[in-house]
Design a protein that fits this description.
Layout lengths: L1 E2 L1 H13 L6 E6 L5 H13 L2 H4 L6 E4 L10 H11 L9 E5 L7 H12 L5 E7 L7 H4 L3 E5 L8 H14 L8 H37 L7 H40 L6 H21 L4 H17 L2
Helix pairs in contact: 1-2, 4-5, 7-8, 7-9, 8-9, 8-11, 9-10, 10-11
């Protein structure tokens, strides 16, 4: 379940007061939900000095992607771990924040696992991301999830608008929500992702070529490792767009559900159908997060979506 920032902070404040707070949280949310800002608010609550001043607190430590490919490197993780293993300077608590945690290199993520399993006393570990499915399952399973919802309208973008237009036709009154529509929607979805992948690979090739031209003659760099890093960054862009496109679909059904509820239609066949459609989308997202082959998951997920759309 997704919460507003105020709702989530209120629940965590209650857990802190009752001594039930966990040691590690994965804070995720779509564009506009503010996971980084929420992490500061949470850290300020935990350290007792408010979100506005928390970044100046000597017991607050944060890292974010810094390399040219916007990845979090193992050296950054090591420095963060060293900082939070030190004795707190002004109290008994300390906070470590990893912003855009999905950008951790695999070696960096694995290096952080031991700290997640055996955190220093009095520490709170916060990971923020807009793409939780890009994180290692071993990381996700060791954190409590805080999912934030956006409280403003999210821009669709050109690809999102194309998907939203297709959704409007398929799921309109009298629309053709059948197997043919499912395969058509799956094909459109995969075509949109292919565009993102092609653009990301072009950027990767340009960046690698520029670096080789600039440093190749003077640096004995590990270009294979650099290429792998850029490929990982490109794939992260694709996963991010996939998540956003699924959110566009979810927003379509959620908007319809709000419209029905505003008209007094709560509990009607139409509202129940919309809830089933949202549930089907969530199951599709879960399948993709678990690593089910993408094309197969999309076809199966969209077939289920059409099936629940036809139920009375």
């Amino acid at each position: 379940m997704a919460y507003s920032r105020n709702e989530a902070l209120s629940l965590l404040e209650k857990a802190l007061a009752e001594g039930r707070l966990g040691h590690a949280y994965l804070i995720s949310g779509e564009t506009g939900s503010g996971p980084d800002e929420f992490a500061n608010e949470f850290a300020g609550l935990f350290l007792g000095d408010g979100s506005i001043r928390v970044e100046n607190d000597p017991d607050f430590h944060a890292i974010a992607p810094e390399s040219k490919s916007r990845r979090i490197l193992t050296d950054q993780i090591r420095a963060l771990e060293e900082a939070i293993h030190r004795t707190p300077e002004k109290g008994s608590r300390k906070v470590a924040v990893i912003r855009d945690a999905d950008r951790m290199m695999p070696q960096a993520a694995n290096a952080f696992l031991k700290t997640l399993e055996e955190p220093p006393p009095g520490s709170l570990l916060l990971l923020t991301t807009s793409l939780p499915e890009a994180l290692l399952e071993t990381i996700r399973s060791r954190c409590l999830a805080v999912v934030l919802r956006s409280e403003g309208e999210r821009p669709l973008g050109e690809r999102g608008e194309r998907l939203a237009a297709a959704m409007g036709k398929i799921f309109a009154e009298g629309g053709r929500a059948d197997a043919t529509a499912a395969f058509g929607l799956s094909r459109l979805f995969r075509d949109l992702l292919a565009e993102v992948r092609e653009e990301a690979e072009e950027r990767m090739d340009e960046e690698l070529s520029a670096e080789k031209a600039r440093f190749g003659k003077t640096t004995e760099g590990d270009w294979d490792a650099r290429e792998d890093s850029l490929k990982a960054a490109a794939e992260a862009d694709v996963l991010g767009e996939r998540s956003r496109l699924l959110s566009v679909m979810g927003d379509h059904f959620a908007a319809e559900l709000r419209r029905v509820a505003a008209g007094g239609g709560t509990g009607t066949d139409q509202s129940r159908r919309l809830i089933r459609q949202l549930d089907a989308l969530e199951r599709l997202r879960t399948s993709l997060e678990r690593g089910v082959q993408e094309a197969l998951a999309l076809e199966a997920g969209f077939l289920e979506l059409m099936a629940v759309s036809r139920q009375d």
